[in-house]
Design goal:
- This protein is of the alpha/beta class.
- Helix content is about 50%, strand content about 15%.
- The chain contains 18 helices and twelve strands.
- It has a seven-stranded mixed β-sheet, sandwiched between helices. Strands 1-2-4-3-5 form a five-stranded mixed β-sheet, with helices on both faces.
- Helix 2 packs parallel to helix 6 and helix 13 packs parallel to helix 14.
- The chain is globular and about 65 Å long.
């Protein structure tokens, strides 16, 4: 069997892709995400081309149901008024209320928000849970800001966002730049404005006020559960393997934690400035101290661990990807692995790549890795553990009851195992053995398309 499939071309899809580029000329990230999913789903589209055209299904699928932009004025510690731009892209609610995180980072713009929301639609569909897709955030960067500045920004941001969310409408969560501190400020303002304690309106909350055990760890842990399934399916084992992880945020830290539990030696991690290499294996407690308690740069790891080395970024291929490892886990941000990185990763003998971040690998790099036999776990499947556990948090809020850490983690393990099975089954159905990326796109596309067909032209 092959990892690629030669098929007839859909004229309808060709028209849609041309229209996509024309209408979204200044949105490269969104175009990239939409093209990737639609091209993978072409064999499905061909089977129902006439019906989909009559329903305008693809036209509706690539157009958000609602895009909200707003100003966010706040006062810094020097008394100066600052103004940022806020976003919420509610992309598709065919299978449930909108669900997706909030990102606070200087790189946030409409293209990034639309790409993340579009990906979220299909990621949520793969979980098997009743959630639509959305994403939001702001070009505000929490780094270097005081707690009071972050609080004032979050309160201003929520003053507008609260009009567009709710437990049966749209349920935001955290993402890059939005952790437990930010969620707390956001929820506090939501509660004050609404005059009611609606726990299910946000997820990623603190345990003291409606959060779920295992939510913080879920995306990273879920990534490793997915990698375990993929390797086992190919008669391989995590134990004894080496790995490198890009990023050092929440996803990366807990991917490290779970990988070590499974006997993986993680020898390198990174941030936006460079990477650390420790031949003895990265120490999880030291990383947690630096990133969660001290909020420091990863470079300071070398001050705590004498065997560690630090390498600055600067080349088209970051030093992290030049380090030989069996497994590569990109857990930082989009388009982190380009084609040149992919070539180095393959040359290093890497057997598997698992996306912990959203679209961290360019389309060219994904194709190169798959065509050269590297096992590839796509983000919409492999990092779905976070949103899946957010849905479990919503369920607990609705029940006014809380599961133990073990119960939530077991449910997460089952969900990730089922996601892998769905991806594999869809890939095999269309003759794409081991192309889990195509399988994820086909499986999720079919579910969303069926729901849209059933609900009419809305």
């Amino acid at each position: 069997m092959s990892n690629t499939l030669t098929i007839n071309k859909s004229k309808y899809l060709e028209e849609i892709l041309i229209n996509l580029k024309q209408k979204n000329q200044n949105q490269p990230e969104f175009i990239q995400a939409a093209q990737e999913i639609l091209k993978s789903a072409e064999p499905v589209i061909l089977k129902r081309e006439k019906e989909y055209r009559q329903l305008g299904l693809l036209e509706r699928l690539i157009e958000p149901e609602r895009v909200i932009t707003f100003r966010v004025p706040w006062v810094d510690d020097n008394g100066r008024v600052q103004v940022n731009r806020g976003y919420r892209v509610q992309f598709n609610s065919a299978i449930g209320p909108y669900k997706g995180g909030l990102r606070f980072h200087e790189s946030v713009n409409l293209s990034v928000m639309k790409f993340l929301a579009f990906e979220q639609v299909f990621k949520n569909a793969l979980t098997g849970l009743p959630m639509g897709g959305a994403k939001g955030g702001s070009d505000f960067d929490p780094k270097g800001k005081s707690d009071n500045e972050i609080m004032r920004f979050c309160q201003s941001f929520m003053n507008e966002l609260q009009m567009h969310i709710g437990s049966n409408v749209d349920i935001p969560a955290g993402d890059i730049g939005v952790g437990a501190r930010e969620i707390g400020y956001l929820f506090g303002q939501y509660k004050k404005v609404k005059g009611a304690f609606e726990a299910g309106a946000l997820t990623g909350k603190g345990l003291e006020y409606g959060g779920s055990l295992a939510r913080k760890e879920a995306t990273g842990h879920g990534l490793i559960y997915f990698m375990r399934e993929m390797l086992q399916d190919n008669k391989l084992d995590l134990r004894g393997k080496t790995a490198v992880i890009s990023g050092s945020g929440n996803v990366a830290i807990y991917a490290l934690e779970k990988a070590v539990e499974y006997g993986v030696k993680v020898i390198a991690m990174s941030d936006s400035n460079g990477c650390i290499y420790d031949k003895n294996g990265i120490d999880i407690e030291t990383i947690k101290l630096i990133k969660e308690n001290l909020r420091g740069r990863i470079k300071t790891y070398t001050q705590h661990i004498s065997s560690a080395e630090y390498y600055e970024n600067g080349d088209i291929v970051p030093p992290l990807y030049r380090i030989k490892a069996d497994i590569v886990l990109p857990c930082a941000t989009q388009n982190d692995i380009n084609l040149e990185c992919a070539k180095v990763i393959f040359k290093n003998g890497t057997i598997a790549v698992g996306e912990g971040a959203n679209m961290p690998t360019t389309t060219e790099a994904v194709n190169y890795l798959i065509e050269n036999g590297v096992l590839f776990a796509p983000a919409k499947a492999a990092n779905a553990g976070g949103v899946a556990t957010s849905c479990l948090e919503m369920a607990q809020n609705s029940m006014r009851y809380f599961w133990s850490y073990k119960e939530v983690d077991q449910k997460l393990d089952v969900i990730m195992t089922k996601i892998y099975s769905r991806c594999k089954e869809a890939a095999y159905e269309y003759g794409l053995e081991n192309n889990i990326c195509a399988g994820a796109n086909i499986s999720s596309f079919r579910k969303v398309a069926r729901a849209m067909r059933a609900q009419g032209i809305v």
